[in-house]
Amino acid sequence: xxxxxxxxxxxxxxxxxxxxxxxxxxxxxxxxxxxxxxxxxxxxxxxxxxxxxxxxxxxxxxxxxxxxxxxxxxxxxxxxxxxxxxxxxxxxxxxxxxxxxxxxxxxxxxxxxxxxxxxxxxxxxxxxxxxxxxxxxxxxxxxxxxxxxxxxxxx
Length: 155
What we know:
The chain is mainly alpha-helical.
């Protein structure tokens, strides 16, 4: 009993830790708290893509692409704006559980489709495309887990 109380106390101080704890060990899940780890994984993935663009992988691999090292600032701004846009939506609808679940599920599905994109580009190019490592090793298991967790919450 004492260990469970200290675990709940820990969870209240660090809501992002919900993703790391089994659902049976915590109080009811606050769905909006799942945005922080989802956006952290998204950001890590985009940093890997940014490094790949900086190394001119797209231009060196697909001569028809106009993306070069000089385009990384534009990519950085676009990703920062996209992350901010998602964060604003998450904040705006944080109290509406139904909308938050729907947005999180949509985000998971989009990120899982992004995994397929990276694997397909890697196969087509014959070399690892920027973003593939985090897509397969981090995004795939994390967003599958998060989607599964959201579905269990719905039941």
